[in-house]
Amino acid sequence: MKLFKIIFLFLISLLSTTTYSQQINTDYFVENNPRRQDYNPAFKPNTDYFISLPIVGMTQMSLGNNSLTVSDLVYNLNGQTISFKNPGGNTDKVYNVFQPITMIMGDAQTNLLAFGWRIQRDYLTFSLTEKSTALVGLPKDLFSFLLYGTPDAIHLNAFNLKNLQSNISYYTEAAACYTLRINREFTIGAKIKILIGNVNVSNSNQKLNILASTDSFKLIGSGSLNYAGGLPIKLNVQPLSLSVDGTPTMLNFLNKPAGIGAGIDLGIRYRVDDKIVLSGSLLDFGFISWYKNVKNVNFNLDYKYDGIKQINGNSIFSPANIFTGTVITDSLLKTLDSSYKISQTQKLFTTATTAKLNLGFEYKLIQNQLSLGLLSHTQFINNTLTEELTASVNAKPVKWFNGSLSYSILNGRFSTIGLGFGLKTGIVHWLLGADYIPFQSVKTPLTIFGINNFVIPYRSGVYNLSMGVNIVFNKSSAKRMHNQTGLYTYDQDDE
């Protein structure tokens, strides 16, 4: 049952990286956030100095996908809860939900140290951040094969899986950001980054196709799996597996870096008039070149099997077939062993960081104490774009409290809201934000992070959360002390 084990481990690896990489859009318009330059380098913090402590200073995480929600798979029909595979269920509706490439993505990042200070009308910030990103790309043809099987009994059913992809990276970002005010209308900013790679696992395919009919099955493909990191990896061909070469020690984990790279963030802020502010930023435009313990596993696969009588969606999803191995048979496994060729090299490789584009519009009301915001957020992942549009109402009634209430239009599905706030108590600033707080959720029989019956959103495929505690200081200038009641609202255009 070697192939079954390989497929099982592959599916588990996909589930373990079912995360969605994105920023917290609701935080974009929270003006008193001292870490606002993370969203646009042209945004100046409204404090003269700030210090962001390790971990608690800023931690952010996101997980999800750009296609599917629980409500697409399980729903109520005539008073009964059914799945899409039950009689009366709609397989076509589920299939149409999938994007050309379903991106299962995610990130987590935590602050090691950050600090910044005002230089007259400009601002300078230094930061050190640990970041991890993960993505799996699943082409729509894969879901066509899983949902419908081989419906054409006469001709070969062709499924193109070339865009099946994955990329998991863990790296440290050292950055310096400078915000320059040109005049009252224009502010620009840039953040220069050195990226220190810790580990990367990624793959690419030159081709990968399934050709199947009711009595034959052919899998043709070629591609490579790349690895770099502190641990040396060994490839075992018979049976096919990867293992650690030697006994892991603490020195393996401390043996950094495994790669080195660079990146840049660029931002602009334009004040049209007293009411309208436009902004834009390009974030995480960069790369990492990997060189330590590099392993490239290259494969060529030309596999044909004539022993399958019929593959169809009902047989694949039948519990009896899954657990007894009716679909994946021992004879299929035996023929697979002689159908692939594996080679390994140690060529250096380069991966790109996930670039993001923000385009913001803000309309100010009541002397900047209330505003309406609209943010377009786009991610560039290889040849795939993911997009989100977030509308928000932003309250800034006093300088020690800012809040934002948002709705994300594309992924919200009329079932979530976003909420973010910045609260200043003395010299301590508290930040909390999330884009997808669900109205409806369901319990699952899963245990995640030690939580039993883990709760997931019903109509949204995305989780995200940011939180931070920063130390902030202001000079005792007449301008900042002119209103002892705290009703002064900061606006960087006023400087």
Strand content of the residues, in percent? over 45%
Main beta sheet: 20 strands, antiparallel
Please tell me what the overall shape is: globular
Distance between the termini: 70 Å
Q: How many whole angstroms does the radius of gyration measure?
A: 26 Å
The stretches of 5 or more residues where confidence is low (pLDDT under 50) are 1-21, 319-329, 477-488
- Helix/strand/pairing class, anyone? mainly beta
Number of individual domains: 1
Could you please describe the fold and organization of this structure?
The protein has 495 residues and is mainly β. It has one domain (2-392). The protein is 13% helix and 52% strand. It has helices spanning 2-16, 70-73, 91-97, 140-148, 250-254, 313-316, 319-324, 330-336, 409-412, 478-481, and strands at 49-52, 59-65, 74-77, 80-83, 101-119, 122-139, 157-160, 165-181, 186-212, 217-229, 233-236, 241-244, 259-271, 276-290, 295-305, 340-345, 349-352, 355-365, 370-381, 384-398, 401-408, 416-425, 428-438, 441-443, 455-457, 462-473. The strands form four sheets. It has a 20-stranded antiparallel beta sheet that branches. A hairpin with a 4-residue loop joins strand 11 (233-236) and strand 12. The longest helix has 15 residues, at 2-16. The protein is globular.
Compose a concise summary of this entry.
The protein is mostly beta strands. It has 10 helices and 26 strands. It has one domain (2-392).
Task: Provide the descriptors you would attach to this structure in a database record.
mainly beta; 20-stranded antiparallel β-sheet; two-stranded antiparallel sheet; 52% strand; globular
